[in-house]
């Protein structure tokens, strides 16, 4: 495949650099000009994905192989995305894929942890019994003992999938390989979508609270306006009352005094003495006396 891309611009270096399976040497001066360079660069950049995909396919095809020469229980480090390696461990009757999860934000760790736990619960149900079993652990699994410490230092734990022969039958092989290679991207997409959903819900909640406060403020302003209008009316009435002529007030007082006099009794000078002398009922004393009998 490498030679088919551009034999003049790409050269395979033998032996490969230590720690790598393939080393390529690029001659940028021999890359064709015009529109072809973009096609050549795209093909060169996809070499790693194609090689990794082919290697993973070969391992999954031999899931039931009893050949121990390929390193039974020995982790194989695969790097599909930069700084996101995962491990494939060949075991009897299955292949285990372990993904160390790392996140930059603490909120992403919380969302991802909840997602992994939910993934475990769903995978253990009868509906998804045919799917590869999934487990999550905050500590490295025993299969990764002896691996470099920097590869095992994570803040999101470790996700493990157990791949058996039924998961790689026929067309399932390509789907399983694609799912394993893009698991990191799938998790990031889920975390990003969940964070956006939470932010939208919080924003809507904030808008509803602001609307309630704004409505309350409008009602308060209306009450203040009504109170001010009532106070102004009373003040205007008071001013109008103060602006009446003094003679009009005097007439009102005189009329009020006359009305009050009508309700009082008419007083006649000397009538009280005449009443006591001639109109008082005399007291009579009886000549008969009653003697109390003992």
From TrEMBL:
SUPFAM superfamilies listed in its UniProt record: Arp2/3 complex subunits (SSF69645)
User: What are the record keywords, sorted?
Assistant: Actin-binding, Cytoplasm, Cytoskeleton
The superkingdom listed in its UniProt entry is Eukaryota
The protein's assembly and partners: Component of the Arp2/3 complex.
Q: Does the keyword rRNA-binding apply?
A: no
A GO BP term here is: actin filament polymerization
Query: What's this chain's function?
Result: Functions as actin-binding component of the Arp2/3 complex which is involved in regulation of actin polymerization and together with an activating nucleation-promoting factor (NPF) mediates the formation of branched actin networks.
The record's GO CC annotations read: Arp2/3 protein complex
What Pfam families would the database entry show?
Answer: P34-Arc (PF04045)
Protein name from the UniProt record: Arp2/3 complex 34 kDa subunit
User: Which compartments does it reside in?
Assistant: Cytoplasm, Cytoskeleton
Q: Which GO terms describe its molecular function?
A: actin binding
**Record's InterPro entries?**
ARPC2, ARPC2/4
The record's similarity note reads:
Belongs to the ARPC2 family.
